[in-house]
Each structure stands twice: as C-alpha cells, then as structure tokens.
Design brief:
By secondary structure, the protein is an alpha+beta fold. The protein is built from nine helices and 17 strands. Strands 1-2-3-4-6-5 form a six-stranded antiparallel β-sheet, covered by helices on one side. The C terminus is likely disordered.
Length: about 400
C-alpha cells in the first residue's frame, strides 16, 4: 500500500545505481521502498534498516538469501551499508498474504487456503533442508509474485532465521528451556511461547495457525486486553496450551485435526514428514472437487498455467532416507549431474561409501548473477566482476572477497 505523506528518502540514490520511487511500508525492522535501476528502469524492493549494533537483522537476511537462492524465495540483488543504514536490494514482489486477507474481508476460501498451505509447506521444507529454521512464520512474511509469477507464493523476511544444525559438531542444536520468544506470539508454537528452543516442528505449527486464521477469520487468542507484552505472551500460551483441538478446528475438514495432532507429536530433533502434511491438504481439495489451478479468491481473471509449469512440481526434490541427515556426494548417487537434487541418506544405503563421514560433500550449484558482499570494518564491499561459480567454488565465498567497489556514504 502506497503511503501518501512525504518521505525524506523519496528521490534519493542508493549505491549510485538505484533511485527510491515510493514507500511500501515499515515495521520494527525498518522501511521498505520501491526503487528503480538507473540503468534499466527495472523495479526492485529496498529494505532500509537503521544501523544498531544490538539489532541488525538485515545483514542476516542478506546472507541467507544469497546462500539459499531457490524457487519461491525472493532474489537478493545486492546488500550494503552507509554510515547510518543497512540496505538490501531485492526482487520486488506483490502483496503479502496479510494484505490480501484483509482485502477479502478477513476470510479465505477452503480452496485458496489449501493451495497456499501446500506452497507454504514446500517453501519451509526447502529452508529446513538447508539446515535453517525461519522462526517468524506469519501471513506478513508470505507474498505473491508479480506478473507471470503472480500465482507463486514466496516466503520472506529471514532476519530471525537460525541454523538448527551445528556445523562444528555435525549434530542438531541442543534442546534448551527458559528462552525468550523469538517471532510473533499470535502464530508462535506452544513450545516457543513456553520458552523452549525452536526447531523444525515449530515452523510447521505456525503454518497450521495461519491456515486456521485464514479459514476462520481470527484466532481465539486475538484481541486480548493485556497491556504488558510478557503478560500477553503468557496469556496466549495458556490459551493455546489448553484449547481443545476439536474447538480450534470446529466446522473444518478432519484433516486439520490430523495435521495438528501430527505436528504436536513431533520430537525436538525429528525430521517432519512434509509429504504427509501436503497430502492432507491435497485430500481436502480432492474431496471438494477442487483442482490446484491457482485461481485464488482475489484473482480478477482466471489464471492460465501450462501443465508442465514448475509450480506443479516439487522443484526442490528433497528425499528423506532415515534419521541421519547429511548430503551424499553426487558421484555416490544416481542423480542427473545437472540436477539440484538433495538427498538425505543413512548408513544402510547401498550407494554409501563406507569411508564417508557425516559431512556435507555436495550442494547444488547456483549461478552467481549479482554482487557478492563481505563484511569489512567500515562497510560492506561489493565485487561486480565475479567468475562463474562451479561445484568446487560454489560455497567458498573467500575466493570472491577482492573488491573493486565500496558502498557510497554520500548518496543516502
């Protein structure tokens, strides 16, 4: 939504390359603007965050977006900092699900909710496969694409994202209690509100609450008249913990109860069965004679999508084989060498070399299209002339840290 009041940044130039056109919104993280490229006039989104050593989340988001580029995630264009602001230039998307929800009188149909839910599970499955948990799943952090991608759901805002896998110890992070809530209380899991360390199961529980929110228009713990943040969180925790699932899912298909019961039984380190959860939502569609045609409630015209469109496939091709989580080498699998397939294997797999330890040997090669950044003492540095990425250098950014361009502190 465009804001009408004059903003001091409108018309300013960022990094000598992008002009700020209009303001899209703002939040606790900072402000979001539409910017245009001075060279191509192409539109992008720019996030501006006030520099504060105590709470600089934009750097985290830029790093994650760069390393996990994939279908359904916004493309990071570049990142840098001035004396006062961190700035992330990224792909411009359409409205958030929260905005669309409000425009539909706070109610989505069963068909739209299930199609969105399947895509949410696809996105979070991929993020989890990269050893990350989002920790702030909410409608504001999902958005629809623009133009030819207006049927695709994107997941946003990785400032609170955290690794759940220790690269040093090659194991899952430990279970800890007594932690403060990270995320949004309305959609946070019961365990997160109770002070537990978060893992994959918590992201899935948040998705469940979003689905109920879309179908019912509100959640039982909304609108509490509690002033203090801590007291409100405690009250939400008590309601979520004590509410009966039949009450929460009343007048909804039974699959939602199965969805909830499954995620609530997940153990802290357990690998979720994402496929099972997606099948539950697909079953709802089939029972009601709906098809996945991406004809959302807000569409003014019917969307025409070819049957071989990438959206109909599980583009990530993630396979889970056993509890042990590691990526096998490409030569130890039957993968197509042009594939980005990720396989989790275990000791019983016949393709496994006995000399292989629990270590990441292969990650999908993603071409580097834009600048790589690195942290210096004063600012972030960019390199515009990157060599093409190969399997050997794909995830070793130290090879790209020579700089021929630094962010300008004069242009903003």
């Amino acid at each position: 939504m465009e804001l009408t009041h004059k903003d001091k940044f409108i018309g300013r130039i960022i990094f000598k390359s992008y002009k700020i056109k209009k303001k899209l919104g703002e939040g606790s993280f900072g402000k979001v603007y539409v910017v245009s490229s001075l060279k191509t006039n192409e539109l992008f989104a720019a996030k501006l965050e006030k520099r504060d050593d105590k709470n600089e989340l934009l750097e985290v988001e830029a790093c994650i977006l760069h390393h996990i580029r994939a279908f359904g995630l916004p493309e990071m264009i570049t990142f840098g900092s001035t004396k006062d602001y961190n700035i992330l230039i990224m792909e411009l998307l359409g409205p958030s699900l929260e905005s669309l929800f409000q425009s539909q009188n706070k109610k989505f149909s069963l068909k739209t909710t299930c199609i969105l839910g399947i895509q949410m599970l696809d996105r979070i499955e991929y993020i989890h496969s990269r050893k990350l948990i989002h920790r702030d799943i909410k409608p504001d952090n999902f958005a629809i694409g623009r133009g030819k991608n207006s049927h695709i759901l994107y997941i946003l805002d990785f400032g609170l994202t955290k690794k759940y896998w220790s690269s040093t110890h090659k194991c899952h992070i430990p279970y800890i209690e007594g932690k403060k809530l990270t995320g949004t209380a309305r959609y946070a899991s019961i365990n997160a509100l109770g002070g537990c360390e978060q893992s994959r199961r918590d992201d899935l529980e948040s998705i469940f609450y979003i689905l109920i929110y879309f179908l019912k228009g509100s959640l039982p713990w909304q609108g509490l008249k509690v002033n203090k943040k801590e007291d409100r969180h405690k009250k939400i925790y008590e309601i979520k913990k004590n509410i009966r699932i039949k009450e929460l899912c009343s007048r909804l298909p039974e699959e939602f109860e199965l969805f909830y019961n499954y995620i609530r039984k997940l153990q802290f380190e357990q690998v979720p069965d994402y496929y099972y959860l997606k099948i539950l939502l697909k079953n709802i569609l089939e029972k009601n004679n709906y098809i996945i045609d991406f004809d959302y409630d807000w569409n003014k015209e019917k969307v025409h999508i070819e049957k071989d469109n990438i959206i109909f496939k599980n583009n990530y091709n993630i396979k889970y084989n056993g509890k042990e989580e590691w990526l096998i080498r490409k030569e130890d699998s039957n993968l197509d060498h042009n594939s980005n397939e990720i396989i989790y294997n275990n000791n019983n797999n016949p393709n496994r070399n006995n000399n292989i330890t629990n270590k990441i040997y292969y990650k999908p090669v993603i071409p580097l299209k834009h600048q790589i950044y690195k942290k210096s003492k004063s600012s972030f540095i960019f390199n515009n002339n990157q060599p093409p990425r190969t399997a050997e250098n794909s995830y070793n950014d130290s090879k790209y840290f020579e700089s021929n361009y630094t962010t300008s502190k004069k242009n903003i």
